[in-house]
Amino acid sequence: MSYSILIVDDSLPMRSVLKRTLKAAGYGKADLLEAANGQEALEVMKNAWVDIIMTDYNMPVMNGLEFIKAIKKDDVAKDIPIVVISTEGNESKIKEFTDCGAAGYITKPFTAEAIRDLIVNILGEVDYEEDSDESDDDFDF
Amino acid sequence: MKKILMKAMMTSISEVMETMFFLPVEFDGESTLSGCGLSKEKIFACRLGFNGDTSGSATIVAPKTLAAEMAENFMGEAKKSLTDEHFSGTLTELCNIVCGNALSKTESKIPFELSIPELINESEVSNEDIFNIIETTVSKMAFSLEID
Q: Would the N or C end of chain B have less CB density within 10 A of its end CB?
């Protein structure tokens, strides 16, 4: 099964790195959608189904926390799991995200293995042989 | 507080440059940009503000040659396929990760909030400003921490 994964980050290089990491993590056949902030992500979601969202916190226009709150108010989208990827790893910030309904949290820098473990934990096991375009186990961020 | 923050920032720069950009660094004291030769090159400069127990901003300056190498290493794509947007975006991401990591490891009664990292014009970086100079295998870069 191939998933649809929405990457939300204002940094063009970071979106590119996340896509590469997801491929290395076994999600090479996933449909990888992109948005530069929460508002743009909501627009993307009007036209495409998403299985999981990976969002940055510190973004212009609509930050990660505002985005999670908007999703949780939406009857159709509220059950889509959201993973926050951010540089800010203090406990109070992580609690703020999970209290709002985030399914997981990863601190930058991250590893492909950490991404894979988190997504598998949320969505279930991926058929790694079938779903991997890259097999670079050393690819860490 | 500035000393504590500066130490945390320097540790974070060293870790992030090596693990994410594959460029080990060495710190080379303080200087102006012209004093270390950076003013002669095309540079990118990025600034990020923060608020918490202490408020201030961090600035990172890197020549285009270094930003290009960092982008290539970070994104795993050849420099020739990348643009100035990728180079500058890589520098703002470095600034974001360095500050986020350093501040989250610094004890603060009020959790630090970070602004969006912004590119600044060369004209906003004074030749009189003192920076901490960082040596990489490609070229020098510069870092400064301002406390309000």
A: C
